[in-house]
Specification:
- The complex is a heterodimer of chains A (477) and B (471).
- Chain A is mainly alpha-helical and 477 residues long.
- Chain A has 23 helices and eight strands.
- In chain A, 48% of the residues lie in helices and 6% in strands.
- Chain A is globular, with a radius of gyration of 22 Å.
- The N terminus of chain A is likely disordered.
- Chain B is α+β, with helices and mostly antiparallel strands and 471 residues long.
- Chain B is globular.
- Chain B has a seven-stranded antiparallel sheet, sandwiched between helices. A five-stranded antiparallel sheet of chain B has the order 5-6-10-8-9.
- The chains are: A mainly alpha (477), B alpha+beta (471).
- Chains A and B meet through α3 and α4 of A and α11 of B.
Amino acid sequence: MAGPGRVRQSRPSATASQPAATDPASSLARALREQEEGLLNCVHCGFCLPACPTYRRLGDEADSPRGRLHLMRAVVEGRLEPGAEAYQRHIGRCLGCRACEPVCPSGVAYGHLLELARRVGNEAKPPSLVTRIILATFGSRWAWRPLLAGARLLRALGLPALAARRPRSGANARGPRLALAMLAASARVRSLPESPPDEVPSPTTPTTNAGRTAADSPSPTDGPDNRPTVAILTGCVQAGLFGRVNAATRRVLEANGYRVVPVGAQGCCGALHAHAGELDSARELARRNVAAFEAAGADYLAMNASGCGAAMREYGSLFSQDDPDAPRAAALAERVRDLSELLVVRGPRPGGSIHLAATSDAPCHLLHAQGVADAPERVLRAIPGLRLLPLQGASECCGGAGIYGLTQPELGGMIGGDKVRNILESGAAAVVTGNPGCMMQIGAGLRLAGSSVVVLHPAELLDESYRRGGLYDGQGR
Amino acid sequence: MIQQSLVRELRAICGSYGVLDDPDALLVYESDALTAYRHRPAAVVLPRTTRETRESVAAIARHGLPIVPRGAGTGLSGGAVALNDAIVVGTARMNRILGIDAPNRRAVLQPGVINAELSVAARRHGLYYAPDPSSQTTCTIGGNVAENSGGPHCLKYGVTSRYVTGLEVVLPDGEVIRIGGQGRDAPGYDLVGLFVGSEGCFGIATEIEVSLLPVPESVRTLLAIFDRIEDAGRAVSEIMSAGMLPAAMEIIDGATIRAVEDSVFAAGYPTDAEAALVIEFDGLEAGLKGDAERARRRCLATGAREVRTAQDEAERAALWKGRKKAFGAMGRIAPDLLVQDATVPRTALPSVLRGISRISARHDLVVANVFHAGDGNLHPNILFDRRDAEELERVERASKEIMRLCVDAGGTITGEHGVGLDKKHHMTLIYGPDELNAMWGIRRVFDPGETMNPGKVLPDETQPVAAAVPA
């Protein structure tokens, strides 16, 4: 069995016996009832406070998980209006990084409660126009495909890179400039900032798979018919701006003995919509993907964007129990794995040398939401010559958090600024992280700070190592 | 409603993120970790420095409003509840370690530093901060000073007061004094000793000097499993009587075991047991083995069905995480809880534990016990759902009976959580009018206007003026 990943049960299963319809009143009532149940687990111990990036920076209890749960409960108890500015502000300021979940002794399903809280909040006060436009765009392939094609064209023209380089930058760029810097940061890294082997800073922990080479690694295939099959979620942003990561994902999986099968009409996973509280839209997108991936019939679903991975692992609890699609969604969710989990089961095979001083930043939705902690670094250890340097605050959110940089520019800038500072202090020439949102947020921050540190997806780096190691020779890429 | 002129004044001092006055948002400050008492403050101020604290306190004092200091809000006696529309002065943004003087084993901190983070920082120098409340990953040193907090390892190492050597304090009128510091025993009266444990009634500590200890050479951690909680209590008493001094001895009862084992902090306690006893010895490697073996034999002799030894640091950490996160895991049993904090002589543990289970049965309540057995410091957690008013009444009755039981057994009403709001009416169980008068007198020396955390610790009806007791 591949895929040892621990799936955190992050939502209380929906018990509502409501019709699956999108009647707003019943949907709202259901959200409130589910919330009341889930909130009872919180005994107010406060163990979550230090894990919360917004609390650590603002020191305001209302911007802590315990405080936000308290506001949610006040709404459920009828002591607070969901349209109240305080509710909108503090629920809005939550990154949704879910760092509070693994430290909660009572197992409060914070992530799900936050989605319900936003659902309730949206009813009282619709989200901003920008948010609505973004969500509507990713709700339909016919909208995001041409939009992202346009973004690719813009990126190719080099305008975003130029905008990010303008002298009066500083890390706290807002709005359009941040968006342009993020777009620039999504571009392929043309050449890796390698240093001669003896100049690569010493790591604190031993990192490379010393002594192992491509030649003496086990054969990757169990014979063509026995290979486990994998379907890759190509995603929306990932497909539009990180096509190279999807291609690398396919190659490294095949090199490690998986057979990648095509998937028909797959689309956006709906994570952005769920996080914003647009649960009905999220369910519609989930239904489409459930059908598409069922038809593909693979043993595993490989995720190379941890935000999408977390969302798809929780498809089962997105639907109420009496929804006809609920069992199918739950069964599909069982087969979801992060790319790194699939790779570590197979070693992964070592590749050719890359003499790079790198550091690894854990995407929140991989570490906190999916509970996958060691796999990404174990993947990187298959690359001879790569030195993994420790990163202070690696488990803290980068401030990307979906569209947080656009909705909360000041706080997002503070959190992102700290991440950039820690990366620069690590001495690494490259940051490796497995989520497109984090790649763009961190890349934009580094660019705006005038740094030449590059951001890479682990699949890209392993792919390059395999190319150098000759693992693809004679395979016709 | 707070005056806008004061809000403007405070904003000018602490910045816009440093003053909160939206009544809706202030709901989150209505309680600390004891949710049974709730009262919304008029505003919250979050200063970053001594200067900001001093100026804020002075401004609030000029307006004649009461002040409630607050750390991380993890207190369990309602000490940070803002009665009478008080303004909360929180230390969450005063969270810098100002210096670690390793050769002299001292550290100077702002009050908002998290207890465990001090030990993490000190560890680089081979040092650590000894008092370890179970909430140490989140509670602050300032709060520890206010409550004179304990923790599992205080059995051997003593509580907060033993480690605080100097303080900078903003008094209720905004004046700043520096007391103690740099020495073992400052000349004159021991004002540091007086301030530690004053529960926010004497002022706000803005700088705290603490002494650090060298990390022990070696540690042995045992887990003894019992089918009867009284037997675990007897084992504790016998180990101490035999002249041993473990660093910690903690009992976790069956209900708590099952809640913890259900959580991410599962420690491997057997879920069919009625008590787990965690015993830790630390010090020089030579000698630990003998101590551990003697303790093991005592446990088996008092009825332990099994005694395990943690094989490595990971196992040891798991045993402690399970113990320390137990309070938070109670949410798996019921939405609300009231934690008692009574201390009884160790020899009385078996009979008091029996008494507690009788009281909980009589009132049809679930009581989960997880406590510092070596110190005789009990923490019965009475579990309930505050939406059920009738149950809440039973909780209050049971709580009083448990308190009375402990006092009758020769114990007292609090071991480490402080008196705060929850236990102030039990103060008369322990003290007579003369003792309470003496306490009122000291309080008024620091806070003549009674504006600092009013309504806490001392029962109002015992005020000398109101009581008008003839001399």
